[in-house]
Amino acid sequence: MLRSSVASISRTTLRSFSTSSAKMSAVLPPLPYGYADLEPAVSEAIMTLHHTKHHATYVANLNKAEGDYASAIQSQDIKKQIALQSAIKFNGGGHINHSLFWENLTPVKSSVIPTSGPLFDAVKDSFGSFEELKKASDATALGIQGSGWAWIAYNPQSKKIETVSTANQDPLLGLTVLVGIDLWEHAFYLDYKNVKPDYLKAIWSVINWKKAEERLVAGGAKL
Ligand code: MN3
Question: How many whole angstroms from 83 Cα to the centroid of ligand 1?
Answer without folding.
Answer: 24
